[in-house]
Amino acid sequence: MAVPKILIPFYSRTGTVARLAEAIAAGARAEGAEVRLRRAREVIPDDMMAAVPGWKESADALNGQYEAPTADDAVWADGIIFGTPTRFGSVSSELKAYIDSLGGLWATGKLVGKAGSAFAASSQPHGGNEVTTLSLYPVLAHLGLIIVPTGYADGAMFAGAGSPYGASVISGHPPAGPSDAEIAVAQFQGKRVTQIAKKLIAA
Prior knowledge:
Blueprint: E1 5-10, H1 16-30, E2 34-39, H2 46-50, H3 55-65, H4 71-76, E3 79-85, H5 93-100, H6 103-108, E4 115-122, H7 129-135, H8 137-143, E5 146-147, E6 168-170, H9 180-202
Parallel strand pairs: 1-2, 1-3, 3-4, 4-5, 4-6
Helix pairs in contact: 1-9
């Protein structure tokens, strides 16, 4: 059987979303997947980044660890799991810029039939994790991806972390986490998307 290939394009400003992405990657690899973790790049001017203490330093460190996502990464993948912090209850502009770059693939149907999923992060319990994850579902549908929610298909989902729509982290102030329960949900999401990708490959 072909090895399933999973792409995890995400944006992370402080590293919290990156840690959740790593947990998803671990779950996918445990199920036999080859994984590409990719961090979307900033889309705002350097002077605006400089106005927020630590932002540029964090971005430089994360960019040194993760390559930027490309359209070729999406073509390569059998499953794509998008990750983002919430921005006023919606997807970050950085991840959205990457999604918008996939228009050529959308126009030619290159992503149709792949597995698709999403995860999110917020600083507080009612910061928009669920609505942000759900806001990516129309994106998955427009790209022709087969939407794969976490559901309540694993015991990790009953520990009060994540949602049936996708893994999530509540980072707090200052940002911290993910917690063990949030990591467990993320690992399950990576496993579940890989399982579905295997079935789609076989079909």
